[in-house]
What does this fold into?
Amino acid sequence: MTQNENPASLIVIFGATGDLANRKLFPSLYNLFSKGNLSKNFAVVGVARRSLSNDEFKQNIIKSIGTVSNDVDKMNEFASHFYYHSHDVTDSASYTALNEIITDLDDHYGTKGNRIFYLAMAPEFFGTIATHLKEDGLTDVSGFKRLVIEKPFGHDLQSAQELNNQIRTAFAEEEIYRIDHYLGKEMVQNIEVIRFANAIFEPLWNNRYISNIQITSSETLGVEERGRYYENSGALRDMVQNHMLQMVALLAMEPPIRLNTEEIRSEKVKAFRAMRPIKDDEVKQFFVRGQYGPGYVNGELVSGYRQENMVNPESNTETFVAGKLMIDNFRWAGVPFYIRTGKRMKTKSTKIVVQFKDIPMNLYYKTEQTLSPNLLVIHIQPEEGITLHLNAKKAGQGIDAQAVKLSYANKGVDGINTPEAYEKLLYDCMKGDATNFTHWDEVALSWNFVDNISDVWQNTYANFPNYEAGSYGPRESDILLARDGFFWWPVTNLDVESC
Ligand code: NAP
It folds into this structure.
């Protein structure tokens, strides 16, 4: 596709002076521009309250994209498409002024009446902005109109439903692009290819050959400056409801009949519907929560969660979740999907480990070395790649077996050499491809799943802190797997390069 075949569009970014816009959105748009993946007919209007001239805003853009480029001419050419409008989104009057600006820019840049509204702002504004866009005529367009909306989408099913009703008055479901940036990650998108393009995996991808699946997403950082947000969210809402359950759905779904948005989403929705709900009295059996206390991360002493900025010193908020999910369908009956995510853990890593069942008879047992189970490991971040763990003969005399690893490294590190997730998602949105965005049905089903757990946790006071910063979470997380005869595969020993 050449630059001019890419759809012309005018992008309005609400929250254009914020962290997300500066760290992710501007550099991602610039990368699209410099690769020729952005139509020459594009313009961006940044919206935020603070007063800035167009020139000052353009300087902010240059500073932001300086993280990914040093081509001054290209950077200036890119920034020349940017404009700023100072506007409090709760103030009705300035939507009319905004509409005039984008109508003029539409003429000037030939954006064909195509408008993308990107809400990079606190979630409490999402509904208000959508309502104003409609009431003040900004959604009356001659081209396409699309709404890109950041997480969190509500804080439970009821609030998500209310928000959805509000934005649906202004945008149809197919015009709403709910961002889950994990779905833009290279190796998350690779799950479908690994599964559906390999004859050696698809026949084994079921309860006859897979014993369990483990998904770990661990961070070494604490809550940093986000204490206020995190206190009302916790790991369950911040990570499990969206990113973790999305990965479960991609691993568990049936092969779609076609690789298009509708078919893929429809299979994911079925996977969500097959997730066994956790009843109140089962929460303890299937889910573990944790909160970090002080400890050492990478050799540095860090404080506990309750001592962080804007955090209640008696906080009951979880910074760690481990859970066991059962998918009640023919393919997965009996196979546990274990998920674990937490802050201030020993390493930063997102990995999926698919553990295959043992062979029926172990001929090598007599050599005092039990065979290792076959593992397929999908490395999502920071490394990207795939490793397949097999058994092979130990070189030399005798027929002893040893574990070996076949490894494919995706040339580098997530966020550096592969396109940033936001770059891919912005490009998809401009092309009108919503496959890697979450449909309302997925959002509703995933909230329904986690609401039960969070209700129980909110109503019972936990004995926190229960894990040291710099560890792999509370002991109960290991017990969760040990009860089924499994253990968490140590994420560091599985590294893609260390073979
Ligand atoms: P942020 O740094 O706090 O930025 C908020 C932006 O909103 C600023 O540009 C602010 O500018 C503007 N704003 C605040 N109140 C306003 C009002 N009444 N009218 C107009 N503009 C207003 O937030 P962020 O970290 O960029 O996050 C934005 C959204 O992305 C949130 O929903 C967050 O959950 C989500 N998100 C962020 C990240 C990330 O890496 N940062 C990752 C995933 C999701 P003024 O103060 O000048 O008005």
The chain has 14 helices and 18 strands. The longest helix spans residues 234-252.
